[in-house]
TrEMBL record:
PANTHER family: HTH-TYPE TRANSCRIPTIONAL REGULATOR GALS (PTHR30146:SF109), LACI-RELATED TRANSCRIPTIONAL REPRESSOR (PTHR30146). This is DNA-binding transcriptional regulator, LacI/PurR family. It comes from the Bacteria. GO terms for molecular function: DNA-binding transcription factor activity; transcription cis-regulatory region binding. It holds the Pfam family Peripla_BP_1. Residues 5-40 form the HTH cro/C1-type domain. The lineage of its organism: Bacteria, Bacillati, Bacillota, Clostridia, Lachnospirales. Coiled coil: none annotated.
């Protein structure tokens, strides 16, 4: 081949194997036969390739000192504080290590932007900031051999996952509300194709199971994506005597609060609300909103350190962070109605 920048794709094509196989052979990790490992290593040696720095065997390309962080095209503007905090943690860690961070936009299932920077060898690794049930970006990165980690949980046990413990946090907040006497709790949220939705819902259900309280599934509303639908749900909930409404995140909490203001629904007096996620967008709300407060800056920093270790060929493990706090506030306080 006669070039010193030998890529995983080059080796895979020449040997007639997958890029994943080449990546595993070079890193020495994963289920792969000794014969295949020897074949890959022999090819690399025959073509006089020396990995970056002469010692790093984990990657078959020269370091760019760039990483990509994915940004989902369906993020709403109100989700920006979360991404900003995560990105701040990532950039702080990467900057200290001499790395630059580029943003790669993913719109629905279209990953052309991500594929371009990977296939052209512009980056050394990727941090995915969202996990899906049908996770096309994750599958592509696995097949490419590119080191990557996910912020969030995944059903794929071969994917390195860095996440806040949303299951336990949501279970804890729901349990606290049940303990306060809120037995009929409604839930409203977004896409059930998002792993985070499944995880938060799982924690919510577990709290009812632990408390021995029957969960009324008729007041559970997922895959809700319009203000008109939210308004209709609020009108319905006011007629069926619910104790509290939990919003899956601050996005839904804000939309619920705005609709309540427009329709003269008094929070606490007419409808108690809570959120499974807190952000600066909820600060200053009156009454203050019961919510879960996560350290997203730390989440980004841990993901960055994990990716760096993986790029260097080190052993990495999933991390479930418990840096959260349950904030019980006025929005779920019981108020006598007159």
């Amino acid at each position: 081949m006669g070039k010193d920048k030998l890529t995983i794709s080059d080796i895979a094509e020449a040997l007639g194997v997958s890029k994943t196989t080449v990546s595993r052979a070079l890193s020495g990790k994963g289920r792969i036969s000794k014969a295949t490992i020897d074949k890959v290593n022999d090819y690399v040696q025959q073509h006089h390739y020396q990995p970056y720095g002469g010692t790093d065997k984990a990657l078959a390309f020269r370091k760019t000192h760039n990483i990509a962080v994915t940004w989902s095209g369906d993020y709403e503007l109100v989700e920006m504080p979360y991404f900003q905090n995560v990105l701040t943690g990532i950039v702080e860690v990467m900057s200290d290590e001499g790395y630059d961070v580029m943003i790669s936009l993913i719109v629905n299932d279209h990953i052309e932007n991500l594929k371009r920077v990977v296939d052209k060898g512009k980056i050394d690794g990727v941090i995915l900031t969202r996990t899906l049930v049908n996770d096309i970006p994750s599958r592509y990165l696995k097949n490419s051999g590119m080191p990557f980690v996910c912020i969030g949980s995944s059903d794929d046990k071969d994917v390195i996952q860095i996440d806040n413990d949303h299951f336990e946090a949501c279970r804890e907040l729901t349990s606290a509300l049940i303990h306060q006497g809120h037995k009929r709790i409604a839930l409203i949220g977004g896409s059930s194709n998002h792993i985070i939705t499944k995880t938060r819902y799982g924690g919510f259900v577990k709290a009812f199971h632990d408390a021995g309280v029957t969960l009324d599934t008729s007041i559970i509303f997922l895959d809700i994506n319009t203000d008109k639908r939210i308004s209709d749900i609020l009108s319905y909930l006011l007629t069926v005597d619910v104790d509290c409404l939990i919003c899956m995140d601050d996005t839904y909490a804000l939309r619920v609060i705005d609709i309540c203001k427009n329709e003269h629904i008094r929070i606490s007096e007419d409808l108690r609300i809570a959120s499974f996620y807190n952000s600066t967008l909820l600060s200053g709300m009156e009454p203050a909103v019961t919510s879960l407060d996560f350290n997203d800056r730390n989440l980004g920093a841990v993901a960055a350190r994990t990716l760096l270790q993986k790029i260097k060929g080190g052993d990495v493990q999933n991390r479930m962070l418990k840096t959260y706090e349950v904030m019980l506030r006025e929005s779920t306080r019981r108020v006598d109605k007159f």
